[in-house]
Amino acid sequence: MTSDVAPVRLESGPFERFRQGFPALKRKTYLSVCDKMILHDDVRAAVDRFMDHLAVASANRADHELMVVSSRQKFAQLMNIDASTVAAVRNVSDGVNTIAWAMPMARADNVVVCVDAEHPNNIYPWLRLKRRGNEVRLVGHMPDGSLDIDAMIDAIDDRTRIVTCASVTFAPGHRTDLVKLGEGCRKKGAFLLVDGVQSAGVLAHDLSDLPVDGFATSTSKGLLGLYGYGFLYVSPNWIDRLEPAYLSRPAVAMTTDDHSVMGGLDYAYQPDSRRFEVGSYNLAGACAADASLDLLLGLGIEEIESRVLELSTALNEGIAALGLTPAVPASGPQQSHIVTVGALDAGGHGFSTDPKIAPLSKQLAEAQVIHTIRRGQLRFAVHAYNTMNDVETVLDFIRQS
Ligand SMILES: Cc1ncc(COP(=O)(O)O)c(C=O)c1O
């Protein structure tokens, strides 16, 4: 006898233990890490401990700042880089603007960006540079919405200082060929800056081995931390060539780490990426990131990537078998943890004019299957806490719709 209802697959082991730590998953099928993180109990406990300290004034600022040091180190471990190359920043915008204004640029120098595929926070920082006389070369994307890497490389010339791209686009969700683009940049001496927020904590990046010069992320998505805290990696051979646009005590080299102590008027920048840090830190964000990075490192980023790609393949192929057309390939180098469905740009942020997508999205939302619509496409994203049962839940809905 056959049944339309998929068998519940029981899991055990480290991924299931990880899953158990998310209260949201007891009530919802969460397929929206591409929008925002969900909170793990350990992460909440780390922030609570910090709040408890604040409530009774039981630690000083320097003690709390050890969480910044520790979270930088753990992010560096995740990305296979040295902690000295990592700055604690607020979010992607902060990291991107830091590079935009630290890069020495003459008036006619240019930057290259794929205008249609990037998030607004990796477009407006570059448009701002036009007001100081820089050229912004806006490159289009491929018909399927992925970056046109060849066109980006063709747009690079001797006056190109920065090329920027997302490691995975927020929609449709293609993974970018960073090796090809990075090699194109290296030939002309341009800095490749990656907006890594969609993939950090979900897909494996060996930044020491990639031709990537900068990588900016917040912790508010796959890194499973809080809004308002993030990291900026700057490769060691660029740090000294960049002049921070803002300067305050953390970026000044001194023998003490106490950020209230004034040094000499004749200052030097920190020798490492701390020269890009400004003022007091988001300490709650640092506590959260420190705890979430422990969880991710405990699972292993290679293992997380294998799991999410297995889930996204199953979701992608399952959707295709039901007669809809996923936008991102189900396997291969462009595959990511994001699965999108529907005509690109038939609609916009949060709405779709595609007759199949809008009702399906409504039904899913009513059943607490959390997803988003971006660029008119129905968008799902998996993380290590998702299971094949979550995939089956979505496929059941599509089957019945
Ligand atoms: C690719 C991408 N970049 C940047 C952001 C957000 O930027 P920020 O961290 O500056 O808020 C998002 C958020 O959805 C995103 O998807």
List its salient traits.
401 residues, alpha/beta, Aspartate Aminotransferase, domain 1, Aspartate Aminotransferase, domain 2, 2 domains, 3-stranded antiparallel β-sheet, 12 helices, 14 strands, 14% strand, globular, disordered N terminus, binds pyridoxal-5'-phosphate
Q: What does this entry look like structurally?
A:
By secondary structure, the protein is an alpha/beta fold. It has two domains: 14-31 and 300-400, Aspartate Aminotransferase, domain 1; 47-297, 3-Layer(aba) Sandwich (Aspartate Aminotransferase, domain 2). The chain is built from twelve helices and 14 strands. It has helices at 14-20, 41-56, 61-79, 92-102, 124-130, 149-155, 178-188, 236-239, 283-299, 301-321, 357-366, 388-400; strands at residues 29-30, 86-89, 110-114, 135-139, 160-166, 191-195, 214-218, 230-234, 338-341, 347-348, 351-352, 369-370, 372-374, 377-381. A seven-stranded mixed sheet has the order 2-8-7-6-5-3-4, sandwiched between helices. It has a three-stranded antiparallel sheet with strand order 9-14-13, covered by helices on one side. Strand 3 (110-114), helix 5 (124-130) and strand 4 (135-139) form a beta-alpha-beta unit. Helix 2 packs antiparallel against helix 9 (283-299) and helix 10 packs parallel to helix 12 (388-400). The chain starts with 13 loop residues before the first helix and ends with a helix. 47% of the residues are buried. Residues 1-5 have low confidence and may be disordered. Bound molecules: pyridoxal-5'-phosphate (PLP). Pyridoxal-5'-phosphate is lined by residues 91-93, 119, 121-122, 166, 170, 195, 197-198, 218.
